[in-house]
Amino acid sequence: MTEEQRLEEFQRKIDSGEKIEPKDWMPESYRKNLIRMISQHAHSEIVGMLPEGNWITRAPSLRRKLILLAKIQDEAGHGLYLYSAAETLGASREELLENLHTGKAKYSSIFNYPTLTWADIGAIGWLVDGAAMVNQVSLIKTSYGPYSRAMVRICKEEAFHNRQGYEIIAELCNGTPEQKQMAQDALDRWWWPAIQMFGPEDTKSTHFEESMKWKIKAESNESLRQKFINMTVPQAEARGLKIPDPNLVFYPETKTYTYGEVDWNEFFNVIQGNGPMNKQRVRARKKAHDDGKWVREAATAYAKKKSKQSAA
Length: 312
Ligand code: 3HC
Description:
With 312 residues, this protein is mainly alpha-helical. Helices cover 68% and strands 2% of the residues. The protein contains 13 helices and two strands. It has a two-stranded antiparallel ribbon. Strand 1 (249-251) and strand 2 form a beta hairpin. The longest helix has 29 residues, at 145-173. The chain is globular. The termini are far apart. The model has no long low-confidence stretch (mean pLDDT 97). Bound molecules: 3-hydroxybutanoyl-coenzyme A.
């Protein structure tokens, strides 16, 4: 088949809703786009453990500590799952991690903000995992088989992350006036970075065309952002919290909200490495990777010894 015929056959498979599997022919830019997106998704999961890890020793009860530990362990698992999905496209995990450690690869901008109070741990579960859930449920429909299947498993755990975060916020809102104010303060600081998680407007989204044509994404950044806002505003109002957007307007006939201007300058400034915590996050990841070198070497040596024994 000529390159053109292969491309036609590929597009036919995409349009018919067939999943593309690792051994199938695929355009080089499809492969590259997916390695970029899946590896940055994996980096986000791993870096996302850091803001929450900051509160393990300060969780207000043993139950809260157990739930937080379980959530952080889940995020590690999501990251490893997604690195494996990226490896099915021929990516090398060492290279992907090198790209994270040298700042060449991105991770979700939201993890460059500090967790100042316990309410932030609630806001992360409620808003960040809530936004991630909206995005990841849509990614179940992605055309790349291994990524789509990874999303099924991850979304189940994401639902638990989102509910436990909202429970923390609800408890604070039912507490003292100071606790309720702490929840409102966390919402004020995490709301706009959470809606930026869906990426820039579609007109400014570099990968929009290709990602939609080849169904890497089933829905656009804008439509997922809108879904998240429509779902989350009523949850805030149910707890007596105020969304920090004076231009938020509800349209009962369409059950949807219009919202104020997003500060894309801040967004691009943060993803260029100038957020409040970018340097600390990358430094912490690099240190963890360097400290774990002996574990990787021991595991590789053990695996080599085992394979020699089974070959003998
Ligand atoms: N943070 C950092 N960079 C972002 C970003 C964000 N929130 N949104 C977009 N960008 C970057 C893109 O990576 C791209 O840069 P690149 O070409 O160097 O990669 C550039 O901004 C232009 O954006 P696009 O819209 O063109 O990029 P995408 O088509 O990749 O769309 C996305 C962005 C919607 C985040 C998409 O990549 C996606 O759906 N990724 C999979 C889901 C994911 O990564 N989620 C991250 C959060 S995971 C999480 O929170 C886990 C939870 O359990 C804690």
